[in-house]
Amino acid sequence: MLQLGKLSIGIGDRFAHQAKAQLNAFVQAAEQGVDVVPVWNKSNREHLTIGSEPRSVREAADVAVKELSWTKPFHVDADHIRLDTVDRFIPHSDFFTIDVADSIGQLAGANAVQAFVNRHPELAGRLEIPGIDQPFETTRATVEQIAARYLLAVQDAGKIYRRIAEAKGAAPFITEVSMDETDNPQTPPELLVILAAISDEQIPAQTIAPKFSGRFNKGVDYAGDAGRFETEFQQDLAVIGFAISKYNLPDNLKLSVHSGSDKFSIYAPIQRSLSRFNAGVHLKTAGTTWLEELIGLAEAGGEGLALSKEIYREAIAHVDELCAPYAAVIDIAREKLPTATEVDAWTSEQYVAALRHEPNCPAFNPHLRQLLHVGYKIAAKMGRRYLQMLESCSEAVSRNVTTNLYERHIKPLFL
């Protein structure tokens, strides 16, 4: 089995121009003695929006690895794939994020639920999990309720896993199971049931993405109680450690935090938790690199700034269309968005200050940042014109991409 390293970050590169700049951040971490594994990820939805193919992610990663003489592990993630979308990714990916959120809450069938509960009598009763102070008391009825909610989703994950395994043959790959896009955070007993079901399906999951409390909005900080998050995160780590030994799951199974970019207020709690449990984590990011491209263009001035303003002008003109697919992961107050006329009059410094994620900067505007985060469709429609501007302003763009990933993400999490 291909093994994922202890610390890893999923890095999106929507326009396939920043792989080298992204990898430079991991080079800097390695120079400080910390190995963080880069995992380039791109979802089917993003490919459809950009008009790209999964092979482009592999090609960009391979070029960056060669140019920087990177000899450490790296991976390419088929992000949020399902049974109807996985096939196009199989030849080009060695990491698969299996998304079964749509199956959560759908009944697997009474017989399947009863069979699961019969196989796992240990899940009912007093659950004492090392690392969690208070035991949990469950009943058979409790386990039945949990299984009724999650069993079909895990079974669907098993179908997708076996589809990949059959197509890959002897080629090894990494499997993640994504359970985060649901309404409520999973409790420790729920996560334990899910992991027992994953074991039953013989899915060698190396990461699992549960739902945490609070809001994980795109491109901005965590919105919620950081203390509650830390408790949940540590309980999940404890459950994973318990389940590894109980259900013969991979020794390196770890948590995956989706929409993890820019969640600055929970990076210290994550770091403390990893230290306490000697655990690893996979932090998944995506659109933050696209925003650093915009910052780089604006910082370059001239035509780069003009294009950045044009993108905002188009984004605010199509705000409903852009926001609709991301309604669950953005919170934008329309009245706090500057008008296109206002932005047209901005200097480079004003545009950068409004967009760059520095929460203590008075000019920072999280509403503008979230709108532009989902506004990559505007740049995609520009096609070659946008890509040529990235190339013309490559120095400013790549510098911002590297700095953001290293200084704002890798350092506070792992150094």
Identify the notable features of this structure and list them briefly:
TIM Barrel, alpha/beta, 415 residues
Secondary structure layout:
Elements: E1 7-12, H1 19-31, E2 37-43, H2 44-50, H3 54-67, E3 75-81, E4 95-99, H4 110-119, E5 125-127, E6 136-138, H5 140-168, E7 174-178, H6 188-200, E8 205-209, H7 226-247, E9 254-257, H8 267-277, E10 281-284, H9 288-300, H10 302-317, H11 319-323, H12 340-344, H13 348-355, H14 366-373, H15 376-382, H16 384-392, H17 394-414
Parallel strand pairs: 1-2, 1-10, 2-3, 3-4, 4-7, 7-8, 8-9, 9-10
Antiparallel strand pairs: 5-6
Helix pairs in contact: 1-3, 1-17, 4-5, 5-6, 6-7, 7-8, 8-17, 9-10, 9-13, 9-17
Task: Describe it.
- Helices cover 51% and strands 12% of the residues.
- The protein has 17 helices and ten strands.
- Strands 1-2-3-4-7-8-9-10 form an eight-stranded parallel β-barrel, surrounded by six helices. A two-stranded antiparallel sheet has the order 5-6.
- The chain starts with 6 loop residues before the first strand and ends with a helix.
- 48% of the residues are buried.
- It has 415 residues and is an alpha/beta fold.
- The model has no long low-confidence stretch (mean pLDDT 97).
- It has two domains: 280 residues, TIM Barrel (Alpha-Beta Barrel); 114 residues, no CATH class.
- The chain is globular and about 70 Å long.
